[in-house]
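2 proteins. here.
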Amino acid sequence: MIMVERFKQLRVAKTLHSGMWKAIGLLVTGSRRREFLNIPGFKGLHVGCGHNVLPGWFNTDLFSSKMVTHLDIKKTLKFPNNCLDALYSEHVIEHLSREVCSQFLREANRMLKPGGILRLVTPDLGFFLKMMADPFKHDAAVYLNWFAGDECTREYAAEMALNVIIGDHGHVHVYSEGILTAELQGAGFVEVKRFPVGESNHPFLFGIEGHGKLSGIGEEINRFESMVLEAVRSDSLNHANY
């Protein structure tokens, strides 16, 4: 009985300790968010930043550090309506179910100012389907040489690469351009446009990608497998206050 009681006490203490640190984390997040929003100037939210910390942006991820603030985009995001000029996400939405991604897109629309820009970078299902259809085409051949080596059997390597991009790396849903465009429009965005990696009509969105800088990937491979879409928050929508 003494051991049982001791175990219960330890479990309660662990729960309280965990709750304390969670509360501290929420206070830090709230404090940083308020400070960011109160500073005059450009307001850009970068979600899932990893180690690609962008100067002048509010950089967030599931981890926190001196430069990165904890933010879970699977939950309601505690930013006011119409407070952001831009929201950027690189290789994040493929880790969400389609339902959760739709919720995130609606939240992005709510937080952006009228005319604000959402920039999404995510694996391009269209590229991989074309690669399956013709694994000997130049772009497909370059990608498959990187993926499996020069001596690979093209058809086999293409099938493996498709399965990896869909089922590995924690990916849940990989989008085609048409479906993601429809999702953006359904969330209230207009003027959906595709750009090459690193390019934009907006200076604050030009050259901000970091995925291609990761070891083993490189800019050429990143250009093949990444789709970049920008969309504009319509000025005709009204949201209930957060």
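next one coming up
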Amino acid sequence: MAPGLPGFTIVGLADTALQEARERVRGAIRNSGYEYPPRRITVNLAPADLRKSGASLDLAIALGILVGSEQVVANGRWAVLGELSLGGDLRPIPGLLPMVDALSRRRVSRVVVPLGGLAEAGLAVGIDVVAAATLAEAAAILRESRRGKSRIRPRRVELAADPSAEEEPVPSARADNDHSDAEPGPDLAEVRGQLEARRAMEIALAGGHCMVMIGPPGSGKTLLARTIPGLLPPLDDDEALVATVIASVSGTEPIGGLVRTRPFRAPHHTISHVAMVGGGPHMSPGEVTLANHGVLFLDELPEFDRSTLEALRQPLEDGQVAIARVGRAAVFPARFQLIAAMNPCPCGHAGEGDGRCRCGPGIVARYSGRISGPLRDRIDLWVHMPRVEPREYVAGAAPEGSALVGARIARARRRQIERGNQENCRLRGRTLKAACRLGAAEQAHAIRLAELEGWSARGIERLLRVARTAADLAGCEAVEGHHLDEAARFRSLSWQRAGLEAAG
């Protein structure tokens, strides 16, 4: 605050949204019963070389002006976060949970947040979270804290001790999100026929393996994929915290507690490269990060842009995506499971034998060639899904439902965590060999399968991972020959060609 002609300047590489805070702050101060000081105001955002964005600093700027003009006197060290409306109301902001958690790690003991973000901010530990609905209420909290007593009643994360108090108790912020109102997906019992595909899906979800389904339109590829949310177990505590932070940063939905449901993301094939892996002007997370500890489903796989598909190679291998832009770099988590579906040719009827396909062998080869060899090598299971016979669909016996299959998947996942504290899809090297416990006969059999198919070292590793998952589903301590055969059948080049080049 300095004498001179009235003015309001924000310095420190502020983006447009932050520069517009001048008008929001001016209106909020006047409409909250305070005087906007007619002085030269300079807001310095340090460090000067780091770009700042968003509206999360509105409340801090407004309170700084009130403190600087001696209308509010605060005591102690406070952090304040929130967006202001012109009328002085506080609005929730995206990324509130990681912000409050970072403040806690900086040993800040108290933070004021918008009332709508109280439950989300309360998930952070080691910091006292107080909520305010308006700028006037936030200023009152700072003012009363200096006097050592409070005539107002700040809203905190804890439940009210006195049930007869005037203010209604705030529900515990550490309760899990209630998804009972969410529309349930289809049950696995609705997928008639396709026994091989159902088995492959069970193996893929049990071990976190990547899978591609190939078949004509109407064979049940998308329906089978839509049953995935009902087959996966909930997130554990560590995974839920990461998922909640990602949901907070993305701002996709209000955060009322830890996110326990595993994400299922299904972007359209017109998605851009940046939307898939993240980045952009604000370094936002992409679909691979939003699907962290969950499933990324890509329908019509060859229709995706080639550069978008190739960008999946690093996160599939490393479980994270590194993004570098001019002056900025970020690493986002990306431990997702890729499930994809595709037609065997542009018209979708190759190999059916009814003469409907008019695509020549060259067209089919070019269509399948849109998926590069390195990306194809990272797919653990390839499933050919033929058209279901009408009799089997109408009069066939009902198969197992999601409850039974999901229970087997959960048991197999528990075995993996108890054995090595990681999913089978992440095993490699000596850890993988120790988990498989191959005997002499099984080692010789694995070598014969690899030589027959001409697999690389990565291909052999993926064979053993899938075989280990098949053994976990069966409750076997060691991988046996029939587990290797099942894994090889879903990964063999001949099985891929059965779906991709059937028109030849």
